[in-house]
Fold:
Amino acid sequence: MFDAAARHLNFGLAAEELNLTQGAVAQQVRKLEQELDVKLFHRLARGLALTEAGKNYSGAVRKAMKIIEQATQKLQVPSKKLRLSVPPSLASKWLVPRLKSFNQTYPEIKVEIVASETLADFETDEVDLAIRMGQPPFTMGLIAQPLAAQMLCAICNPDFATRVGKINEVEDLINCELIHDHHSQWSDFITDLPNTVGGMKFNQTALAMDAALNGQGVALVPYLLAQGEIANGRLVELWRNKKPSRTGYYIIRSEMRKVQPNQQTMIDWLLMQAGN
Structure:
């Protein structure tokens, strides 16, 4: 009862959540204060306010409640829900276009996609699996399974490709409008790239690809993200790095958790989609 009252700061709302009367909640909180011999709430005209002792107690109680919730979930029948954390650009350009086939094949698994660049915290973020680009080891307590190597390619739309003409080496693009994402990898391949070279800059690879689709220049992106648009003719691959980058895409999971059947189904499907 204290936890509900502390979250709502209102005995009436806490009573609604607990399906009790407001008086019963207030009485139990008052009894708790007497047992602890400390005041937990300031009673105000329009609700409640936690005292300093109440704030400290509430934080500890919330953590304890979370531990109980997690322990209960582990004892329950495995859920058919699956929460997958994916970088935004990989989600929009590679995963989402393929999800229809997963949903048709496994309609019983309800997938929730969380778009995020930060490394997933499996305890606080409540995710089951994650996909991240990087180079293992990531963080202690995580298992990283290779999904796909990162092969970079230079892409543009068909009209822009006609203007550029034949490309033998990536250096041939030095005078083009080069589109940059937050990885800024053009300088890794064009060693004499001048600072004056124009081109838009974006903080997401997907946005750099959209700019290329709209004829604004040439973007350097992972082939995994561009292969669908290349296959349907909306993008043209001008050049591809034959040597994979040191970083790649990995399926990440917590080593503290047993892999549930629905999670293994998703892992197998992701590997198949990536050609593994």
In short: The domain at 152-240 is CATH 3.40.190.290 (D-Maltodextrin-Binding Protein; domain 2).
